[in-house]
Amino acid sequence: MYRKLVLDNGLRVVTERIPTLRSVTVGIWVTVGSRDERKGEEGLSHFIEHMFFKGTRRRSATQISREIDALGGEMNAFTGRETTTFYVKVQDQQLEPALELLADLFHHSRFDAREIQKEKQVVLEEIRMVQDDPEDLVQDLHTKQALARHPLGRPILGRSSTIKGLRRQHLLDYTRRHYDPRHTIIAVAGNFEEKTIEPLLARFFGRFKSNGFPQPNRWPPEIKGGVIVQRKPLEQVHLCLGLKGVPAGHKDRYAAHALNGILGGSVSSRLFQEIREKRGLAYSIYSYLSTFSDAGTLTVYAATRPKEVPRVIELVCRELNRLRSSGVGKKELDRAKNQMKGSLMLSLESSDSRMSKLAKDELYLGHHTSLGDMLVEIDRVSEEQVHHLSCELFDPRCLSVTALGPVSRNAIQPSFA
User: Fold this and answer.
1) Cα separation, 109 vs 52, whole angstroms
2) 16 catalytic, yes or no?
3) pLDDT in tens, 133-164
4) pTM for this structure?
5) Catalytic residue among 16, 37, 42, 49, which?
6) Which domains are delineated in the chain?
């Protein structure tokens, strides 16, 4: 059963009781991410997420780790381009101590100067790890290229120079400016007692005071086309081809997911079958949607031998043209919709995934959508809708290509008209 309430301080709480589960997950979603960072603040959202686990007034970092292990649960956090999330997942009987632990981290982290210096090295290693992973690196480069220096295109981890130069006061100022109950959602999903959850949340989060700052000013990006090549001594060339997508709450979002599934989002997709199964040109080939509050992108990723780069790009562009000119057939669309429904139902079998869905519904839609509602919307997707959407999104002027590896700029000649 779904419920929503708003605490006196403006903090929104969304809950879904699922008595068939033996776990419960609580997530704190703060509406601040890498897109909200000012010049010179690149990476602060992510760094602050790390620091919440490095000790509070009552607990050291070691005590925090030991306590969550003693509860038999897991506690973690992640930073995105628009949100920062802290969550804990435990057995249902451990909800109250887990909530107290999560609240202590959220309200009372110390941001100790010595811990900051140590954590700088950890984050710098994380940045180096991305630099050493060509699949991650090319997608970071591509996002920056496609979003044309918009704040959404920044790497979430930030820049090494910014991380090296940050000070404790930078973190305190940033947290004070962005962490506010009016801009925070708590989502709870799993097995819990409804009569006790609201008093618990009010006790642990009701005193969270507003900072008085407005939410950061956000504006939508313009999706840009073009070609960028970064040479690197690798065995393969890693490619990203990107186009426009749809925002998270767009009316055609289900059609967009169906279109993505048909293009490259599954093992039966056109790109997987044509490029990997039929021609053996790549081991890894897929497409995915990135959705934000006011924009979206569709990206195709592939890794192939340097001499096969022109052929892979040609085949991807050919499938884009086919979808735009001829659309999809009923059998192909039905298969994509069944795959969507299966993935959706399987993904919602755990309390942590249900918690994420609760929060995202509130963030991007402002209301809850049931599984039944979503299945109905998927069934409503038509061949005409998918064809119309492909004509709208697959605009040659917005096609961006990013290549990483031993390849020349002359080999990148996308033919898409």
Assistant:
1) 5
2) no
3) 999 999 999 999 999 889 999 999 999 999 99
4) 0.95
5) 49
6) 2-205 (3.30.830.10), 226-411 (3.30.830.10)
